[in-house]
Amino acid sequence: xxxxxxxxILDNTFPNIYFDEDGVCNQCHxxxxxxxxxxxxxxxxxxxxxxVEKVKSRGKNQEYDCIQGVSGGRxxxxxxxxxxxxxxxxxxxxxxxxxxxxxxxxxxxxACRKLDVDLHNHTVEWEEFKDLQRAFLFASVxxxxxxxxxxxVTILYNIAEENDIKYVFSGSSFRTEGQGSIEWSLHDxxxxxxxxxxxxxxMNLNHYxxxxxxxxxxxxxxxxxxxxxxxxMDYHHSDVDPLLExxxxxxxxxxxxxxxxxxxxxxxxxxxxxxxxxKRLTDYATLVLSGQMTRGEAFNKMTKSxxxxxxxxxxxxxxxxxxxLTEEEMDSIINAVPKRNFDYDHHSRFHRxxxxxxxxxxx
Length: 363
Prior knowledge:
A five-stranded parallel sheet has the order 3-2-1-4-5, sandwiched between helices. Helices cover 51% and strands 6% of the residues. The chain is globular. The chain has a single domain (45-178, 185-277, 309-357), classed as 3-Layer(aba) Sandwich (Rossmann fold). Strand 1 (66-69), helix 3 (74-85) and strand 2 (90-96) form a beta-alpha-beta unit. It is α/β, with parallel strands linked by helices. Helix 3 runs parallel beside helix 4 (102-115), helix 3 crosses helix 9 (237-248) and helix 10 crosses helix 13 (309-323).
């Protein structure tokens, strides 16, 4: 029997969910623990200012004192804006996988130009990336966006290491973006990536930026740290959007992670249709918890489509052309029997915990 959390909108179809005696789910309790740790009080604001001063001090004799990954989205753009407001000198890094929307490209260029921030545009080795992305589609797993996500993070830290930059800023925000499940996505598992590519790829991955636990340990040992400033802030979309539009000429792109044509298609069409995964569920649940949406509004929005059929057809045609897929291959991808991420080789739970413990993210 279906059961829905009494506080947010998650139900018992969400992987590994459970409820307390009041009907409140474990995801709500995890959100509360984070709110307690990152309370927007005077003490934590002092901690954030102290972190910013630490970044300035460490990088005062360098060309850049920190790195910020940018996608053209709201979170990364606002974080870049904050860094300049705080007097930092970031290097903006974008990873180009040929899937960006024109709005995302314009947002990145406008923000960097108006904020006077240098932009490093890293283009992936295309043939290898294309082969890996095709492999993930044919593997029939929900972690279809991993080739981009894994590469993006790895490249950021590689650039930080190469340039002796000790701080990487992230636009992550637990108050606006819901935490998914490893049943949905296995971001850090290079064994998982290798196994899928071994079974469905056609060439060697000589240049794709895979990272192992050894890389993570090396970055940590070298003192590279990730800072998530939005964790420390009462971050509301309704406050941020007008500011970005006014100050940076920023434009909204229609949905969370819709900066990428491929991600838009995968999240709004492929995952719901094939895997019954709608990632709006966790995002809306989080917005309910942070007071940016009522439960009624969230339930209502879940019934409405934000992805018109005409746009899906256009995006699908783009993906077919970009990845060199035929209509028949795409039909087979959409209609293939869904598999779990864990149907493929992967690291143990102990390995995942160890990777997290030595992760450069500490703030």
